[in-house]
Design brief:
This protein has 4 helices and 3 strands; from the N terminus they run αβαβαβα. The two termini are about 20 Å apart. The chain binds zinc ion.
């Protein structure tokens, strides 16, 4: 699941389609953990392509997700994302294996078409 962030990557997130595809957000159990390649986005760009979907952090919290583990940090997402998870009393943690983090960044960057969308290495 892509969870990017601010503005420029706001149309790439996958949490919303994932939750919508399940058709039943109430099926998230209290102890469920969402594992995501990239840190979830905490805001959307007004007028951007993904604006109508809302940010992934809010969608995850609203769906009842209380535990999220991500690999690649998204510098554009971190402040808003962390604030929202803290306010909701939810847990947001990054894996601590540098190899997995590098792999996640490489994987994500292989999907972008513009270098301005790429995560920093
Ligand atoms: Zn997102």
């Amino acid at each position: 699941m892509r969870s990017a962030t601010s503005s420029r990557r706001s149309n790439i997130s996958l949490e919303s389609p994932l939750l919508l595809a399940r058709g039943d957000v109430n099926s998230v159990l209290p102890d469920d953990i969402v594992y995501t390649t990239v840190e979830p986005c905490g805001k959307r760009t007004p007028g951007g392509q993904g604006e109508y979907m809302g940010d992934c952090t809010t969608n995850l919290i609203d769906a009842g997700v209380r535990y999220v583990v991500y690999a690649a940090p998204d510098p554009d997402a971190s402040a808003q994302t962390r604030y929202k998870f803290e306010q909701a009393g939810s847990s947001l943690r990054q894996v601590n294996d540098p190899h997995i983090i590098r792999q996640a960044i490489t994987l994500f960057n292989s999907t972008v078409t513009s270098s301005s969308d790429a995560l920093p290495q």
